[in-house]
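Re: the 313-residue chain
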Amino acid sequence: MRFHHIRRLHVWAVVTTGLLLIAVAFPQQWTGTLTSARMRFASAGRAFAQSPEAPARLEWLGWQFFRLTSPGGKIILFNPSLNDPKAAFVNRESPLNLEQIDRVDLILISSGHADDQGMAAEISQKTGAPIITTFELANWLVAKGVASDKILRGEPGSRFDVGGIKVQVVNSVHGSGAPSLPGSLPSAVYGGPALGFIVTLETGLKIYHAGSTALTQDLKLYAQLYKPHVALLPIASGLMPDEAALAAEFLLTDNPNLHSVFPQHHASFLPPELRGDVFVKEVAARRALAGRVKAFNPQPGQMFLITTRETKG
């Protein structure tokens, strides 16, 4: 063992001496090689640190309907009410009808109300997209013709991973009755609890669709636990614009991520006090949100590019 130790020391001494002689004999070349190596490592480090985050695309398509396209190309629909004469609720300001929907990877519906679920059943049947909703509403959707294996049954607290898209189901303080089915009694069908969804994309970007929730301290818990970057908040059902601005403030609780909020559950034909521009003013008026959270007033069909740092659009 001692012999091997001495042999290793001898080899180390020979190599070190050789490198020293090279440095003395060719100082410029040696210095240039070290400088070039340092520059390559520094350049690689900067490139890694500055590599841009691929943005997600978010489109407001009227009322509560948002289409989210992940950086990986996954298409998620929130409460897809369409401008279609066959719909129980016609989303008059949406630029889309059923014929224009050809590819979807996931559908999220927050309640059984006609304006919340929209044409989720028809879209699933056409595209094969799975639907995340409650156990109770799943039975109703099956009766509507949706394949049972295309429904992911959940409740507040459920978690799903659909092709790398993570969905945290949360509570929404709202009702959830579904319209009566043909041939049944003309009364609403119990759709289970109303839901909200926090969706995490491949880049870690988290988007919270609050459904039609009323103001609740639960929002502070969602901020602490899930830390969304973007929130889509109702302003004409459940919450009014001033309450939605306070909801945005609640979502800052122990949450450094939140940077953008959007109004939903509204339209240009509603009274002026229930429109997106009022929400933007209410957010701007809250001191806790100033300089931290930006509110947007999207137009139907308008697209936004969103990362974990900012929203552009």
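Residues 2-25 form the longest helix (24 residues).
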